């Protein structure tokens, strides 16, 4: 899969994660923990530089293996404001988008812009028929982003919650272009 390493998303730029951003990424996560901990199992009070380095190393491996394509989200002036990625874990023909936004930039349309742009790019990739977003039913912010980016709820399934704010309902929303 020929996934671009950098994507211009208007006022934002999505760039393949680089090891030198680990410190800023750790700062962004720590700053956003109150919003991340309820819905992201990897977010925890002690999140720090080692966690950030591990994520970026995993991202580099995933890109090389063709299983996930994670991007740092930057403003036009170079501020790191979040993360977004494409994952192949839902099987052939489908890419899943996962994302989080740094708290001070949440609620201003940045993630919707990033998701919309990454969806358009994903749907141009060979063999990709649809893009999915999966979120917990209690994660209203992720639900709003998915809806604003043109995703429609396709199914709900029961599962064991993995993070403290999750319910037992996982929602899958689909965009088919």
From TrEMBL:
Protein's name according to its UniProt entry: Acetyltransferase
GO molecular function: acyltransferase activity, transferring groups other than amino-acyl groups
Signal peptide (from-to): none
InterPro entries, per database record: Acyl_CoA_acyltransferase (IPR016181), GNAT_dom (IPR000182), N-acetyltransferase (IPR051531)
Pfam families listed in its UniProt record: Acetyltransf_3
Domain N-acetyltransferase: 12-151
């Amino acid at each position: 899969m020929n996934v671009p390493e950098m994507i211009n998303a208007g006022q934002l730029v999505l760039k393949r994660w680089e090891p030198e951003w680990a410190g800023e990424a750790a700062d962004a996560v720590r700053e956003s923990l109150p919003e991340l901990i309820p819905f992201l199992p990897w977010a925890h009070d002690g999140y720090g530089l080692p966690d950030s380095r591990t994520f970026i190393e995993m991202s580099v491996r995933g890109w090389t293996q063709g299983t996930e394509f994670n991007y740092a989200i930057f403003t036009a002036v170079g501020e790191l404001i979040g993360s977004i990625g494409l994952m192949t874990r839902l099987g052939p023909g489908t890419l899943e988008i996962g994302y989080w936004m740094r708290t001070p930039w949440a609620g201003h349309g940045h993630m919707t812009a990033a998701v919309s742009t990454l969806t358009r790019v994903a749907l141009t990739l060979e063999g990709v028929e649809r893009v999915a977003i999966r979120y917990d039913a209690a994660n209203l912010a992720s639900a709003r982003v998915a809806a604003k980016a043109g995703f429609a709820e396709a199914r709900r399934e029961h599962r064991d919650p993995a993070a403290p704010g999750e319910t037992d309902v996982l929602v899958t929303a689909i965009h088919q272009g």
